[in-house]
Amino acid sequence: MNFWARLFYNWRRVWKALKLYGIIAGPGIIVMVADNDAGGITTYAATGAKFGYSLLWFLILLGPIAFFIQEMTVRLGAVTKRGHAESIFHGFGPFWGWFSLVDLILVDWLTLITEFIGMTAAMSIFHVPPLVTVLFVILIMGMMIVRGNYWTWEKIALFFCAVNLVYIPCAFIVRPSISNILSNGLIPHIPAGGFTNSFFFFLMANIGTTIAPWMVFFQQSAVVDKGIQEKDIFWGRIDTFIGSMFTVIVAAFCIIVTGTLLRGVDIRDAAEAAVQLMGINKYLGTLLAIGLFDAGLLGAICISLASSWAFGEVFGWAHSLNSKIREAQWFYAFYFFALVSAGAVVLIPGAPLVLITLFVQVIAVTLLPASLVFLILMLNNKESMGKYKNNVFQNIANVTIAAVIIVLSTMYAISTLFPGILR
Amino acid sequence: MGEMIFSVLSRRIAGFVGNMVSQISAINKKYATPHVKTTPAVRVALVFLRFYLLALVGILVYKFITLVH
User: Fold this and answer.
1) Domain with A400 in it: what CATH number?
2) For residue A93, which residues of chain B lie inside 8 Å, CB to CB?
3) pLDDT tens across A34-57, in order?
4) How many angstroms separate the CA atoms of A277 and A254, rounded?
């Protein structure tokens, strides 16, 4: 074969691989980018304002950790063809199944409320009334699924994932010092002030926002609904890896923005950061507000589906996005009910939104241990997983990650519920 | 008229609840036998996990009640 023939042949192979990746790509990228939801962006904005670039190294570490966990859902979904809720019922019986399902529904509904809080706060910067924002979001999310086609939903979700990259141009606008980022941000260290309660709280908040239990349920169900087969697992892993890189990139750039311009400013939420930045640079504040709205929207899109899929799997309803509304009435009814009720809560005057935001993080801690432990146990079941079961390295990594997350999340939950108890 | 609407609604709700209860029983029966084989050590760990999570839920409920009050 001469040089040009070989070049053409290799180009054809690469192009075919890229096309195959393009077909498989979706669940991994969507779940990872949606991980940077309204609560996540708020956490990163507050982290940057509080510690500058000092926790960038920690965010970068969380990327591979999220990959290791989410990658397991790809294998489990592709091999067993079951969603995570159904897998827990099937593997461990009704007690754990109902515990996980009820917990998931509650956590997801409360998280959906926090997404609406973020979206209404973002749009209020542009003087859009909360009612209009809520109705607009319900309309968009309804239109995404009404065609009864998973691919349509996925392509629209990927578009919103691309919008989530708005923090990258924001970071360039603020013109941070690269040498400062490299020296303060990328070398693991504890910032000046030492290992304080506040530092621990922010570490835990970042862990909690990067590894959320709904992600496990969502990605596994999405893998099943998309019809990913065992032969596609390699590309599913690539998809998840690329998604984990995006999640780290968005988080890092968000921290760089607030770490550069709002260092030392007390930020309670991302909307407040956007308002502060609006005073410094109108475009910066606008982009941050758009990013916050998009983050909330992406989170809402994934979380509402995670619950509907889980419910449908367990109750045996038709539960695919490829089903039309009349074919999967309960699936869509549940989806819209969760959406509308969560949006309605945000519109109630005097609703305890701060309490909800506080509790959702803690309630998620009750679901995380069970979902991680069962994920690892199921991935070690040779009978169902065959050659795709965890190898030794994966077990060491995943068990270590799960153990550390469970211990730290528990401490976080206790310190959130009883501030000062761990001092 | 109001009584009629109430009676129809309550029959519908009762029917729905009854349907859900029977579905839940069917699900419990379907998944009664766990399919993932676990070693005795894992079973003991899961018992501890059960107590740990129930304790955490208990603390949450307690905190929620005290905050609401």
Assistant:
1) 1.20.1740.10
2) 31-34
3) 999 998 999 999 999 989 899 999
4) 12
